[in-house]
Amino acid sequence: MTQAERDALVNAFYQLRNGADLINDLATFHSDFFNFDNTADPTRLDIHFNLPDEPERDIFFAWHRMQMFEVEQAMQDINPNISIPYWDSTVDQSVNSPLWDENFMGQFDDDWGLNRNLGGNGELGTIGELNTLLGISDYLIFSDDTERGNIHAGPHRWTGGAMPTTASPRDPVFYLHHTFIDKIWADWEAIHQNSSFIRTSMLRYDGTYVFDGQTLPLVNPNNIIDPRAFGVFYAEDGLAVLDDYTVSNTYNAIENFYYQFLIEVRDGFEIPANTSCRITSVNEIVMLPGFVAASGSDFRAQIDNTQARTSGSAIVRNTKKFEALPSMRMVDFEGKKLGDDSSDIEVYPNPFLESVNIRLGQNTHSGRIVLYNMAGQQVKSEVFRDKSVLNLNDLRNLASGVYILNVVDNNGVVLHKVQLIKS
């Protein structure tokens, strides 16, 4: 980013705290609906930790993508050239990084009372851990391992202050971190192309939530699996590739693509008649075969020479400490994952091929064994009474993948949940 871009981003964060205070509203919502496991009402819809045993509730990646877009849209109302950059925490790992400079993210610590403790709790994720995630072929396992693992949880813990709490969106660096998490999802989807959601709406983005007098739209998470749905492209190594996209002006009267370094426009990037688009670089733009700007479109490609000559605008800071939030609490990112429940039950073999044996402890006498696939569909069920060892047979024809085995008592209470792998 140029200094002017950094200053514009910082000023936008400060401005979003004014008036209706979008930053505080999102932090409060995120905290209020973070996770309802182990509460009086664990079936309520929430944002986090619904995998692997509740895929029908999972919205982790899609919800945060929509959150990033909501904030970026608000920033672009202030300055159309703003895009939220991503913090690649597998590479940028120093407490002395320019990321934390007093003229960038560092100033918010004192101004907003964030109480960061950089590097004081845990380690950041590694490139090796990231590559392992990108190599996972099952979407639900990839999503769960990302959410609970070091690539996502590490920067929350490492930054300290608000970041390892349910109110982490209070810290502006949350948005740089989650933009990176969103890029990881985009990279994974480009490789595997099998992300999917059972839910067709999301908390906050269900067509009923009102912020600052405006009702936020209903968003089906399956419709935003590709970040191009929002006109979002991720640059890497000094190159932004714009492709496979049709300008529609759905969200902006003029769609604006701005990047400091090389922009390549190619392969199915189309600007139809009666639409408006600007592509701006500080350095270079290359139009390649496959790019189409139709007759009657309003299109301009330009080099922004002003960025090279300016050091940025003055920062208009505000000292606005956050108030106490009753729902705010520290987050146990790893938690108790499915399959950790080994008390009073033994399930083997796992992975399985054609049968599963369940050895029950002395506290379980009768009930039902139910096997679900990751779409929440029941694929096997057997009643038991006065047995300590049960057998689920005839499983050879099940598709390979992840399954959930529930042990249910006669009152319908789930006593145990175990994750199984069909090889």
TrEMBL record:
Belongs to the tyrosinase family. PANTHER family: TYROSINASE FAMILY MEMBER, TYROSINASE-LIKE PROTEIN TYR-1-RELATED. InterPro entries: Di-copper_centre_dom_sf, GCX_COOH, Secre_tail, Tyrosinase/Hemocyanin, Tyrosinase_Cu-bd. It holds the Pfam family Por_Secre_tail. Keywords: Copper, Metal-binding, Signal. It comes from the Bacteria. GO terms for molecular function: metal ion binding; oxidoreductase activity. This is Tyrosinase copper-binding domain-containing protein. Residues 171-182 form the Tyrosinase copper-binding domain. The keyword Signal applies. It comes from Zhouia amylolytica AD3.
